[in-house]
Amino acid sequence: MSHGSKLSKLDRTLTLDAARVTEAAAIAAAKWRGRGDERQADQAAIAAMRAELNRLPINGRVVIGEDEDSEPPMLFMGENIGVGEGIPLDIAVDPVEGVTLCAKDNANALSVVVLAAPDSLLNVPGMYMDKLAIGPGYEPDVIDLNLSPAENLARVAKAKGVSVSGLTVCILDRVRHSKLIAEVRAAGAAIRLIRDGDIAGVIEAAKPAETGIDIYMGVGGAAEGVLAAAALCSIGGQFLGRLTPLNDEQRRRAASMGITDLRKIYTLEDMVRGDVIFSATGITDGTMLDGVKFNGKTVETHSIVMRSTSKTVRWVHSCYDVAASAIASA
Ligand code: VTB
Q1: To test ligand 1's pocket by mutation, which of 111, 176, 196, 202 has the most ligand atoms within 8 angstroms of CB?
Q2: Is the pTM of this model over 0.70?
Q3: Residue 136: left (phi > 0), alpha (psi -120 to 50), or beta?
Q4: Of all protein residues, whose CA lies closest to atom 16 belonging to ligand 1?
Q5: Which pLDDT tens digit goes with each residue over 10-26?
Q6: Of 160, 215, 244, 268, most Cβ neighbours within 10 A?
């Protein structure tokens, strides 16, 4: 694996900064939890994340971000972030991963950021990606996006030493997945259908002993694919993705970003080529992280923060004093 071999390593003290960034965004979004207003939740998280990123001593550039057309434009691709002088950094953001989950106060809404050494993340256009992921401990190339779901399940089951009926697959509950779901069921595996949030879905597939999920399959956001890949660089595991443009406009956008081979299957190493720090903070209570807790004078957050060079995985439980902290009182 080439992490950090050619590209610069990140200052490890940025790890806590990354946690602070997603904590701020999660707290802002959590104030809109269960209020049925996706836009407000998203805007609040974007503004809070941007404010926190802008305090960092970095010369940052957003490489995976929000829609350029949003008003006001914030955290859009190409935006310069940070105090300007200092560490050059590429930044990928998903201030509210699962905005519908947040608006409905359903489980597993997260705030996510990835701080990356320059040019280490695959730049993907806003489109879907077909994804396939498993956790660590398997021989290389156990999974293959060119194989059918049944074939991949058979290979994973064999490698794991179980029958296919002993496997659980995580899939986004979407009409577009009806064929995939039927094929997985026909093969005999169980399915955990999720409403949203496939960054958490992929991470959970990399931790089968804790989550009971063995494989992630299906089509979700390409940006979320790269963010999940950044997490897997620390947790370990295998992840494959192939862009699935829906129309010519999306094909043109891909071409304008230098992506010409739309059949290409990206591996983890293609998606993340250098040192990355990944941070996710729970907005709503979830299977992986507890959500933000407002306790009156304090606010508590739960995050998972990881750094790929050292493969350190930290679980950070933070307690903010509302009176003393700009983040918690904002
Ligand atoms: C995907 C998935 C995300 O939204 O982007 C999905 O990766 C969008 O798919 O985790 P749909 O167009 O089918 O809603 C999420 O689930 C949440 O943002």
Answers
A1: 196
A2: yes
A3: beta
A4: 196
A5: 888 899 999 999 999 99
A6: 215
